[in-house]
Design brief:
Order of helices and strands of chain A: EEEHHHEHEHEHEHEHEHHEHH
Structural class of chain B: alpha/beta
Number of helices of chain B: 8
Order of helices and strands of chain B: HEEHEEHEHHHHHE
Number of domains of chain A: 1
Radius of gyration of chain B: 21 Å
CATH topology of the largest domain in chain B: GMP Synthetase, Chain A, domain 3
Number of strands of chain B: 6
Shape of chain A: globular
Largest interface: A-B, 44 and 38 residues
CATH architecture of chain A: Alpha-Beta Barrel
CATH architecture of the largest domain in chain B: 2-Layer Sandwich
Largest sheet of chain B: 4 strands, mixed
Strand order of the largest sheet of chain B: 5-4-3-6
Distance between the termini of chain B: 11 Å
Pfam family, one (chain A): Amidohydro_2
Shape of chain B: elongated
Structural class of chain A: alpha/beta
CATH topology of chain A: TIM Barrel
Domain MIP18 family-like (chain B): 15-87
Number of domains of chain B: 2
CATH superfamily of chain A: Metal-dependent hydrolases
Organism (chain A): Pseudokineococcus lusitanus
Strand order of the largest sheet of chain A: 6-7-8-9-10
Protein name (chain B): Metal-sulfur cluster biosynthetic enzyme
Largest sheet of chain A: 5 strands, parallel
CATH class of the largest domain in chain B: Alpha Beta
Protein name (chain A): Amidohydrolase-related domain-containing protein
Oligomer: heterodimer
Chain lengths: 341, 265
């Protein structure tokens, strides 16, 4: 919980990872390039006081994670969103065993989401069933740009993807997080392209599609589909740290998201360990739309409460103490649609 | 070896190389690679002109990377006095593939094989349209701010002749020319890529969409510029300021011109 000026905020970090990018876990040069890219994001967008050393950045472990999120970071609950990246790292990038064990030890604080890859075919469907049973999955994180053998990516609307989504529906895995953003190899199977989310969201209206990084670098394409699909949500991972170096850009992002989606469909995410949540929570609570940006309404305290935790808590059925709720909670909201010409 | 009577002086050649590279755009960011600091080095001798390009991360889109590198090679090869032209992309996850493809003039499909199913021209066209949309929005938002009593819908009737002269109008005219749209004073500003305007009741929504496109372009441009500076210390000196979307944290870019290194004898 975070408190400021007599107001208490429930904080749900909807996108964290326990990764291992140390040299011994790297399979090839791409493993180095990938973490170096993250490290540059970290150095470029963080306040100087929050910069980590490269060594610290490669691996944090469970104790450090618990401290950064829950002791120092004001987080009440966090959700693991692991990326497999098995072509780059020996045991993958996100550490399934370590993260799921940590979540099992702290069920009140951590939720473990797993991943699937439709290119695993029938075997992968069995794997998803097993993972669902073992981890009690409420959600999955999908990385459509992941390399896999000769393939450098897949689409959410591929026939095999649909078989996996059908299985998610059957297993009660209702939250589908899709990485759409800074990517590894889009090419023709353009991983920036959110059109595949559009198709899947239309065909699986009973599932929730959380677009991580809110479609950046193609914010406009994302907004356009999210306007038309009420089961599409925006994760603020990577967008949020702009609040420090580019506050006007961040104001525009949040302003556009509220306009096209509404205040109930935007999630706070630190993307730990890209960034730690502490400064992001503090800055977000202090943040306001610049006065000269008259095209956007000022953010209200209730809107900030929703983004910081209540919206994601509603989707994941995570209990929120009554006194931290708002008068118009997200669960009761009717999705707001913008008339599309 | 290839010197001809028309071969310009060393200074003239450097100017021409810079001008040629200045015609190469990052399609998504809608800026020349020279302004973005993507040109790492240029080396010129009697035998060869060798250019190295660098990008903000190892994982920048390979299709855009290929497009910029091959455009650079084409622009330099077109100079009448160049002999062998080598363009190489540094520190990218596909550097080897792209550099081999460029050396062999294999083309996009020849370079990426089965992954390159569609033509790059389609990609270029998509981003030409976005660049135009963003440029029109900048002009119309400026016009609306200068006419605070006009409703947003009035933007649909604004014509090129109504726009104040200056950088934003010039930029819009360049984007229009790239799409083959008219440039006369009576032409509507808010049009789609075919030059068609919108019914009055659709104008606010169209403008709103255009705004999100402009925010994307400006935001990506500054993010990429910042990442390049983080990745290559000192590269900020090779960047030219971008006023669109600039914020307090932006340090003024350097004004260093491309340095050409003479190599060999």
């Amino acid at each position: 919980m975070y408190s400021k000026d007599g107001v208490d905020y429930f904080v749900l970090d909807a996108h964290v990872a326990l990764w291992d990018a140390r040299v011994e876990n790297r399979r090839n040069v791409h493993g180095k390039q990938f973490i170096d890219c993250f490290f540059d994001y970290h150095r470029n967008l963080s306040p100087e006081s929050e910069h980590w050393s490269y060594e610290e950045y490669l691996y944090q472990g469970g104790d450090r994670l618990m401290k950064d999120l829950f002791e120092d970071g004001y987080v009440d609950h966090a959700i693991f969103q692991p990326a497999r990246l098995a072509e780059f790292y020996r045991t993958g990038f996100g550490q399934t065993e370590e993260a799921s064990a940590l979540a099992a030890a702290h069920p009140d604080k951590l939720t473990y989401n797993h991943y699937f890859d439709p290119r695993d075919g029938e075997r992968g469907l069995d794997g998803l069933r097993e993972a669902s049973e073992r981890f009690g999955l409420k959600g999955v994180k999908l990385y459509t740009a992941d390399w896999h053998g000769d393939s450098r990516g897949w689409r959410l609307d591929d026939p095999w993807s649909y078989r996996y989504l059908e299985l998610c529906r059957e297993l009660g895995i209702k939250n589908i997080h899709v990485h759409k953003g800074p990517t590894i190899r889009p090419l023709d199977r353009d991983a920036f392209d959110v059109a595949d989310v559009d198709h899947a969201a239309t065909d699986f209206t009973d599932l929730n599609f959380v677009v991580e990084h809110c479609g950046l670098p193609r914010l406009e394409d994302f907004c356009w589909i999210a306007t038309q699909e009420p089961n599409v949500y925006a994760g603020l991972a990577v967008a949020l740290p702009f609040i420090h170096t580019r506050p006007r850009y961040f104001a525009q992002i949040i302003g556009e998201l509220f306009y096209w989606l509404d205040e109930n469909r935007v999630f706070f995410s630190s993307d730990y360990a890209l960034w730690t949540p502490r400064w992001l929570v503090e800055r977000f609570v202090d943040f306001q739309i610049p006065e000269d940006m008259t095209e956007y309404a000022p953010l209200t305290t209730d809107q900030k409460k929703k983004v910081l935790g209540l919206n994601a808590a509603a989707l994941y059925d995570i209990p929120v103490p009554e006194h931290l709720q708002v008068a118009h909670p997200p669960a009761a909201a009717e999705p707001q649609a913008v008339a599309v010409a | 070896m290839t010197a001809t009577l028309e071969r310009p002086t060393a200074h003239g050649r450097a100017e021409q190389v810079r001008a040629a590279l200045g015609t190469v755009l990052d399609p998504e960011l809608d800026e020349p690679i020279t302004d973005l600091g993507f040109v790492r080095s240029v080396a010129l001798d009697d035998e060869e002109l060798r250019v190295h390009l660098r990008l903000p991360t190892s994982f920048c889109s390979p299709n855009f990377a290929y497009l910029m590198a091959s455009d650079a090679k084409d622009a330099l090869t077109a100079l009448p006095w160049t002999g062998r032209v080598v363009v190489e992309l540094d520190d990218h996850h596909d550097s080897d593939l792209v550099n081999r493809g460029l050396a062999a003039d294999a083309g996009y499909r020849g370079t990426f094989g089965h992954e390159a199913e569609t033509d790059l021209e389609e990609l270029r066209e998509t981003f030409r349209r976005k660049a135009h949309t963003a440029a029109a929005e900048r002009c119309l938002t400026g016009w609306l701010r200068a006419h605070p009593d006009e409703p947003e819908g009035a933007a649909g009737g604004v014509v090129l002749g109504d726009l104040a002269p200056g950088r934003e109008r010039d930029a819009l005219l360049r984007r229009r020319a790239a799409l083959g749209l008219p440039a006369d004073d009576g032409a509507l500003v808010l049009v789609d890529h075919t030059g068609r305007g919108f019914p009055a009741d659709e104008v606010p929504l169209r403008l709103r969409r255009a705004r999100s496109t402009r925010i994307s372009v400006d935001g990506n441009a500054h993010f990429c510029r910042g990442l390049l500076r983080t990745r290559y210390p000192g590269s900020g000196e090779d960047q030219v300021d971008r006023p669109e979307g600039a914020e307090a944290a932006d340090v003024p870019a350097g004004a260093r011109l491309l340095m050409i290194t003479p190599v060999g004898g």
